[in-house]
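To: structure desk
From: M.T.
Subject: fold request, one chain
Message: Could you run this one when you get a chance? Sequence is below, nothing fancy, just the single chain.
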Amino acid sequence: MIIRPARISDAAAIAGLATQLGYPTRPEEAEPRLRDVTSRPENAILVAESDGVVVGWIHVAGSHHVETECFAEILALVVDEEHRSGGIGATLVEGASEWGARNGFATLRVRSNVVRERTHAFYERLGFARIKSQVVFARPIAP
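Reply: Done. Structure tokens follow.
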């Protein structure tokens, strides 16, 4: 298995894995999003490739705030259902951590839906500590 930066040609695999994560995504939606995100230096998308097949990916980005120190944040992580519990997720997190260190961040954060208890245990095994709970709100922005 290798960890490498995502390529535009990975869009279909990334879409399939995003769908497994619970975010239905078609390849034709993933491709322009992937182009956009990978064009921004404050973001990185890394993929785990096994025998030429993308079996997982992680999105990490720098987060800058006035009220806190800046940090790197995992925005998404998914490993193919058939490849879970084999260390791929941990390896992707380590890749995100290395990206954060290379970009001057001292802390790596992640948010996880309250219903993903297995995921919480995964992050805790990797040394993450719970620092707060929150509710996320959204509203459309008028054109």
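Reply (cont.): The chain has a mean pLDDT of 95. Let me know if you need anything else for the meeting.
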